C-alpha cells in the first residue's frame, strides 16, 4: 500500500518539476522519470499492456525525441551566434 502512495508521489513531483524547471534537458529527464513511475503504477494495478506502453512510449520514445530536438536546436542556436 505504501509503495503505491510513493509511486504516485513520485509521479506528481516529477510532473511539477517538469513544468517548473527552466532548463529543458532537466525538465525532459524529470518527465521521463515521472513516466517510468507511472508505468510502475500501471504494473502495480495489474495492467501490463498499459504499463509496457507507457514505459516504451512515454518514458522511452518521447524522452529520446525531446532530448534530440533540444540538442539539435541548441547546436543551431550556437552556430548562428
Indicate the topology.
Blueprint: H1 2-20, H2 24-44, H3 48-80
Overall pLDDT score: 89
Figure out the total of helices: 3
Given as residue ranges, the uncertain stretches (5+ residues, pLDDT < 50) are: none
Report the portion of residues in β strands: under 5%
Number of strands: 0
Oligomeric status of the shown chains?
A: single chain
The general outline is elongated
Count structural domains. Answer: 1
Q: Structural class of the helix and strand makeup?
A: mainly alpha
- Return Rg in Å: 15 Å
Task: Let me know the largest β-sheet.
Answer: none
Following the backbone from N to C, one meets helices and strands in this order, namely HHH
Tell me the distance between the termini: 54 Å
Give the fraction of residues assigned to helices: over 70%
What does it look like?
The chain is mainly α and 81 residues long. It has one domain. 90% of the residues lie in helices and 0% in strands. It is built from three helices and no strands. The chain has helices at residues 2-20, 24-44, 48-80. The chain is elongated. The relative contact order is 0.13. The mean pLDDT is 89.
Amino acid at each position: 500500500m505504501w509503495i503505491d502512495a510513493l509511486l504516485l508521489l513520485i509521479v506528481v513531483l516529477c510532473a511539477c518539476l517538469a513544468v517548473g524547471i527552466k532548463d529543458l534537458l532537466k525538465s525532459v529527464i524529470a518527465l521521463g522519470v515521472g513516466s517510468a513511475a507511472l508505468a510502475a503504477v500501471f504494473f502495480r494495478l495489474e495492467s501490463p499492456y498499459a504499463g509496457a506502453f507507457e514505459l516504451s512510449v512515454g518514458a522511452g520514445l518521447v524522452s529520446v525525441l525531446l532530448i534530440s530536438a533540444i540538442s539539435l536546436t541548441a547546436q543551431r542556436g550556437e552556430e548562428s551566434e
